[in-house]
């Protein structure tokens, strides 16, 4: 692999299928490692490997499993990381579950511990019940967060059946149905080395990592597993609901609109290009340098919390646009009108070229942070994208591509709005 | 002590701190203008970065500025307000990509031009700020202040401090308050702005792949404006024994109760026992190894999060957690038991060692982030403490259990704030 921004990436595949990547950063003080499985909240129905059993699991189980992985027979693994002076954490999103630690000493022991605990499920009836209390409080916390609620409601509008419309954490009711047996089934299906990736960056030698992983993985006798069959429900091209409004105890309304992307099915480089292309499109139309942003801001319809983003996966994709506003209906109307006008005349070539420069700069800036590098690498990897192709993909996106996305992606018949109003 | 920043003083008294390093892909520039946190000026101070962001002489609208910066590979530029103890700090920042990764004009020179304009050459109208910008930004700031209400986590923390420090400047919100906005117009704001530039202490940080001498010459030239005598900015520290704790309850239509407990530590950054206090805080609620996490979350299953944190510039500590409404008494009882345990010296080796290691780890990690390096150094400036991260690490490692037990005796619960359901 060529040097990229002065960085070099090293990789190795273990016999059991686990891919390990190391990006050394010699002048950093810390080591940051992520161990991640391609298993998220949308994987709610699948065939249990080996048995052929078709299983539909309770909502929120991937996230619940993440919580329970920290429990070992000897106690809580958080404690072990703390003893080693490291900080550890984990997160679950729609498509993956990732465990991580960050440390400035005892790298080998920390890395060993990370592998060990993620590879060792230990669930008891009692501890599963206890976790329900903790996760209930986590869900209650999100119920009071308007940003989260407005997004959740938008996804419920855009999608009829796809599990992306379900809260990653599930509901207070659904998590009650989770039991030890189902947790093991999910674990055994999705936590196989061939479905996982280990990414390590910071002040560490690649060979040190590879040797440690080899020693560790060879101790276990894990056989090969056939590809996992994930079952997603049939999702119509249309949207489920054009609009949602809820009331929460907030100071002013919060508005979010989104478009459903039906041009899906891509993976790897093509998906990366699409993502960048739509990213450029949204930046040109709604970014701080756009005529629309300036006008909406001056008229007091938005403030600098106005934002937009695109989330693209193999099976689904959507964008979001919005923020706090006094007048959600007017903001909605203005955004649609502006999109129409842009569709009629097309994106300007100079805007396209300038935003490309901004994207390049933002990407380079990201490489300051080992957290950014690891998080991006891992989440792209699960989409079969190599993050080191980013500059190539950015170069290949053409002005015509952006204009084509402007016409096809921003289709008014596939958009919905979500609003949180003050009580 | 090994100081990573080279310190120079510009002719007009601005402090320039430069750290030359090729560790990062970007160059970071930060300006801090220090002001006393006072009701009379807090809202004006807060409004300034918002108004200045709207336009400069050469870039009369925010859009012009954005267009220019995007062409410079998306140089990040902006301003905000920090509150450190009882000082309110106007912050301007800029981050640019290192020239060696891209082609085109000199990025540092071109970006510094815009940065200087942002701070020193606002777009003017009749010898003052532009009326429309001031009025629009007053509205944006008002909404910004109001929106704290949406964020129940921070709302509960802020409210606890407000109740606890009612008669102290610390109770002022960093963005000021809505009533005072009404008294601000373009003229008094502009006068105040000039006054800040002339009299408030100013620190300029540069961190990146730069030549120190060249950089310092550049900045000397660009920021060569006349300044007068600097005023003294300091955070006032109150040592206070609490006779009786205060309980404040507020009701909103929420799904989770938010419990905040505010404490007086009677120890400040710079005191001999400050690092013992850091260890104390770590043992109590500084992570998964802490007493709060272990007892409130893991054992009693009462909360998803339970933490404690220090406001080191003011000598305060805050405990926060999100709980079921009915569990208020039970949670407070468990928390108080943890405090009593530390006071009595009931600290396990595991709790103590893990805390020390975790603090050392986070000090070491801070050198991997430009903003953390600058932020730690800034805290030192505010409190008149000059020490390197190596010094901090050494002092943390020197703390004993006995020190922690001792510092615990000085910590008193002042106010409990509970956000309950209607």
From TrEMBL, chain A:
Pfam families registered for this protein in UniProt: Peptidase_M16 (PF00675), Peptidase_M16_C (PF05193)
Q: Peptidase M16 C-terminal domain: from which residue to which, for each copy? A: 177-358
GO molecular function terms here?
metal ion binding
Which ranges carry the Peptidase M16 N-terminal domain? 59-170
Annotated PANTHER family? METALLOPROTEASE, ZINC-DEPENDENT PROTEASE
Q: What's the protein name?
A: Insulinase family protein
């Amino acid at each position: 692999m060529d040097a990229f921004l002065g960085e070099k990436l090293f990789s190795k595949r273990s016999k059991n299928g686990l891919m390990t990547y190391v990006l050394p950063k010699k002048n950093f003080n810390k080591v940051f490692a992520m161990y991640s499985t391609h298993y998220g909240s949308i994987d709610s129905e699948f065939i249990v490997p080996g048995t052929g059993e078709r299983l539909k699991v309770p909502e929120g189980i991937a996230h619940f499993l993440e919580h329970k992985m920290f429990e070992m027979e000897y106690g809580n693994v958080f404690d072990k990381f703390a003893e080693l002076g490291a900080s550890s954490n984990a997160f679950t999103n729609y498509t993956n579950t990732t465990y991580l630690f960050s440390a400035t000493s005892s790298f080998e022991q920390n890395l060993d511990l990370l592998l060990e605990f993620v590879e060792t499920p230990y669930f008891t009836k009692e501890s599963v019940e206890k976790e329900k209390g903790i996760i209930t409080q986590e869900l209650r916390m999100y119920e009071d967060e308007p940003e989260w609620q407005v997004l959740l409601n938008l996804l419920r509008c855009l999608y009829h059946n796809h599990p992306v419309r379900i809260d990653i954490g599930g509901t207070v009711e659904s998590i009650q149905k989770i039991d030890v047996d189902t947790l093991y089934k999910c674990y055994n299906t999705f936590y196989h080395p061939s479905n996982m990736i280990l990414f390590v960056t910071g002040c560490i030698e690649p060979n040190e990592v590879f040797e440690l992983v080899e020693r560790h993985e060879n101790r276990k006798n894990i056989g090969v597993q056939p590809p996992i069959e994930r079952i997603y429900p049939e999702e119509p091209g249309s949207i489920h609901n054009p609009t949602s409004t809820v009331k929460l105890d907030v100071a002013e309304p919060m508005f979010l609109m989104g478009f459903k992307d039906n041009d899906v099915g891509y993976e790897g480089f093509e998906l990366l290009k699409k993502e960048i292309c739509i990213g450029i499109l949204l930046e040109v139309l709604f970014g701080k340098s756009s005529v629309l942003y300036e006008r909406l801001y001056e008229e007091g319809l938005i403030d600098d919390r106005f934002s937009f983003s695109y989330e693209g996966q193999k099976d689904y994709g959507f964008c979001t646009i919005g923020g706090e506003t006094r007048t959600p209906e007017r903001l909605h109307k203005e955004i649609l009108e502006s999109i129409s006008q842009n569709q009629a005349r097309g994106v300007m070539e100079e805007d396209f070229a300038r935003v490309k420069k901004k994207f390049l700069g933002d990407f380079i800036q990201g490489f300051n942070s080992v957290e950014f590098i690891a998080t991006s690498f891992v989440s792209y990897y699960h989409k079969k994208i190599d993050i080191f192709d980013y500059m190539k993909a950015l170069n290949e996106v053409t002005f015509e591509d952006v204009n084509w996305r402007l016409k096809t992606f921003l289709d008014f018949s596939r958009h919905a709005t979500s609003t949180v109003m003050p009580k | 002590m090994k100081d990573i920043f080279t310190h120079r003083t510009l002719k007009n008294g601005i402090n320039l701190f430069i750290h030359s390093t090729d560790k990062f892909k970007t160059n970071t520039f930060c300006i801090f203008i220090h002001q006393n946190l006072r009701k009379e000026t807090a809202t004006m101070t807060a409004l300034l970065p918002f108004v200045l962001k709207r336009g400069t002489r050469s870039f009369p609208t925010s859009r012009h500025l954005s267009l220019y910066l995007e062409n410079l590979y998306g140089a990040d530029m902006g301003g905000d307000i920090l509150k450190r103890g009882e000082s309110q700090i106007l912050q301007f920042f800029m981050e640019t990509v290192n020239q060696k990764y891209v082609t085109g004009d000199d990025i540092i020179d071109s970006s510094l031009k815009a940065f200087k304009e942002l701070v020193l050459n606002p777009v003017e109208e009749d010898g003052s700020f532009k009326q429309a910008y001031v009025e629009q930004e007053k509205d944006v700031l008002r909404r910004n202040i109001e929106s704290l209400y949406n964020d129940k986590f921070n709302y509960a923390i802020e409210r606890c401090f407000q109740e606890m420090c009612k008669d102290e400047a610390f109770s002022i919100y960093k963005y000021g308050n809505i009533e005072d906005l009404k008294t601000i117009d373009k003229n008094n704001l502009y006068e105040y702005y000039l006054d800040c530039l002339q009299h408030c202490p100013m620190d300029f940080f540069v961190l990146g792949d730069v030549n120190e001498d060249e950089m310092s010459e550049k900045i000397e030239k660009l920021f060569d404006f006349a300044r007068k005598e600097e005023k003294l900015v300091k955070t006032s520290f109150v040592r206070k024994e609490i006779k009786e704790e205060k309980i404040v309850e507020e009701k909103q239509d929420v799904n989770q109760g938010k419990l905040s407990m505010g404490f007086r530590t009677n120890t400040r950054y710079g005191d001999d026992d400050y690092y013992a206090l850091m260890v104390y805080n770590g043992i109590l609620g500084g992570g998964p190894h802490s007493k709060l996490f272990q007892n409130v979350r893991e054992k009693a299953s009462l909360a998803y999060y339970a933490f404690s944190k220090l406001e080191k510039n003011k000598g305060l500590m805050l405990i926060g957690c999100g709980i079921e409404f009915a569990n208020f008494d039970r949670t407070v009882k468990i928390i108080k038991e943890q405090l009593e345990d530390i006071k009595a010296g009931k600290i396990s080796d595991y709790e103590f060692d893990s805390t020390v290691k975790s603090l050392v780890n986070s000090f070491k990690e801070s050198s991997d982030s430009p903003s953390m390096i600058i932020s730690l150094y800034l805290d030192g400036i505010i409190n008149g403490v000059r020490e390197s991260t190596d010094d901090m690490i050494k002092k943390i490692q020197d703390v004993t259990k006995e020190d922690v037990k001792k510092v615990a005796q000085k910590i008193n619960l002042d106010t409990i704030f509970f956000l309950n359901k209607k």
